[in-house]
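# step 3/5: fold
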Amino acid sequence: MSERSTGIVIIGSGFAGLGMAIQLKRNGFHDFVVLEKSEALGGTWHDNTYPGCACDVPSHMYSFSFELNPRWSRMFAPQPEIRAYLERTADKYRVREHIRFRTAVEGMEYDEERRVWQVALADGAVLTAKAVVSGVGALHIPSFPDLPGIERFQGTAFHSAEWDHSYDFTGKRVAVIGTGASAIQFVPELAGRVEHLALFQRTPPWVQPKPDRAIAAPVRKALEKVPGAPRAVRNLIYWTLEARAVGFTIDPRLSAPQERLARWHLRRQIPDPELRAKVTPDYTIGCKRVLLSNDYYPALTRPNVEVETGGVAEVRENSIVTRDGREYEVDAIVYGTGFKVVDAMAGWRVVGRGGLKIQEAWADGVQAHHGTTIPGFPNFFMMLGPNTGLGHNSVVFMIETQIQHVLSLLRLMQEREAETVEPRPEAMRAYNERLHRRLRRAVWSEGGCDSWYLDAGGVNRTLWPGHTFEFWAGSRNARPEDYVLT
């Protein structure tokens, strides 16, 4: 078993991994390597290639603040354009030379005597590093529903994150299970090609109009030529999105205008009262992710599309049977059932100081200090860790704040001539007690729905409970008194 050494290991090359790599280089840290399990960079924007895949945050906000892109073709960029942006950014800041592709991480263990992390790779090699930054994010492990007989199905079946582009849907009978953010993008793409599409809905989402349009060439040119124009557009989008947070985090009643907009959109696009009743949510808007689409509801009104709300009883060799006995003969099943978010973090094989496994550290629930560091795991940093997700704005903003937090810790280590840093347990405990007090009165806990934001105990381990500028103000610079430096 070979062993190699580096200063810092970054896992993943999506927005989090690339952002961390770029800022390390810009701040004088050049001894690092980025480990990417795929053959190309981009993270979720490389993995997800389903038809209609696009961002649901405006493009000028869903990008790095230090690398604004005045050339976005649309207000909401499609997947190929976002991935191309990440490719260009990696090349511009010369971090591609630090990336090792097709290098999957099996696990990592802290060597207390040598004060290094031993990162085990899938090929059997071991990489020794002074610090580890996890940039894997939460949306990378597909979640499949627990349906009786699911393994018996003889047709084609795949998750939206593992799209089979070789399969021809033309004239096929297709079942789509799930009505989340991915499904509302690919269902309209499939509806016009298939013979019949059965959409199995467990909980209807709130859907609002998507203010998407092509950005005209003269506008793009102006954004390139006028000093400060891209920044002004970004700032306008930022504060517009931040205004949505008041109903989610302060008082759900403040979201009444958001709900009225969604109900108007529903009435306007689905005239049939029976179908409209099927897809009308019975929970407070914001409790589950609010989705944006102009073509999802029209797709459901097509004569070859059927919304099934009876629940799946079992999957057979060539069909799906509902709980009330209806049987749908299908040639293919597409799972639009999202990702394992909380479980993705809890499933890591990470062993810290004294043999402490991350599952043991999280026995009472997944948590971290500022969503980034954990007691007992020296020099281990997480991007998009617990309670750093968002339901209203760009998660790239949160990533950049966390990157600044990590850089402040690395600088602190240099100033103190320390080898390791980790948060004090009491500091992390106090931080999370404050955080969860706010979450208990937020819409995700009080809105009357069950979402992927919550763990098995019904506790929100995913979202930040306030405005993003609050996270920025409190987290961009680490408080030295919160940390133990050795």
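# step 4/5: annotate
The first helix runs from residue 15 to 26.
# step 5/5: archive (pending)
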